[in-house]
Amino acid sequence: MAERQTGTRRKNGDRRQVILDAAARRFAEFGFEATTVRQIADDVNILSGSLYHHFATKEEMLAEVVRDAVLDQRERALRIAGSAHDAETKFVTLIREELTALAERIEAYAIIFNERKFFRRSPDFLDLMKARKESFEAWRNVLEQGVREGLFHAGIDSYLTISTIMRMLNSGADWYRHEDGSPLDAMADYSLEALTEFYAGFVLRSVRSAERAAEPIPSSVVVA
């Protein structure tokens, strides 16, 4: 009997993940509000009513799709910002790890970015918005550290700088994963490391103090 119950739970868990994968694809491509429960059910060949055995609402599916990505993003930013490295090394590491995560979980992060207005106005997502804010604050703390250390110029607009970086990295991940329709041969000579180096150099040249503009770009580090 115990083996049968374990098998049933595993089957239900597998079905739940299949539904989440289908929902993620729909939400990423068409948007959360434009996607219906019936469409998700059709994608996994079940009746709409059967889907409600796994999820009470469409909002619950959305939360499940993005939660781990949001919490991982916060943990990653806080871990790097709290390390003992100088601000430039932290900044390059933030860019590398963010770009890597975006490329690996493109659908979840596309939803987080595209549905940010919905998340802000929905009380069901206050905890995730708090985590997003903490991620942003970690990036801002690194910028402010760089100013204090004399590595970055004092006139940085933190909000515009971080927002621009996030949009740039999202677009870069789309391009790297061929999600933006770019021809495959345009990607042949680029690795994720090459993209990281390009974006890190581009960003640092815009935030560095004038006397340091031509200095080499530091390597990213592994922060445990």
UniProtKB/TrEMBL annotation:
Limits of the HTH tetR-type domain: 13-73
InterPro entries: Homeodomain-like_sf, HTH-type_Tx_Regulator, HTH_TetR, KstR2_TetR_C, Tet_transcr_reg_TetR-rel_C_sf
PROSITE patterns in alphabetical order: HTH_TETR_2 (PS50977)
Residue ranges the record marks as coiled coil: none
Keywords from the UniProt entry: DNA-binding
Keyword tRNA processing recorded: no
A UniProt-annotated Pfam family: TetR_N
DNA-binding region: 36-55
Name recorded for this polypeptide: HTH-type transcriptional repressor KstR2
Source lineage: Bacteria, Pseudomonadati, Pseudomonadota, Alphaproteobacteria, Sphingomonadales
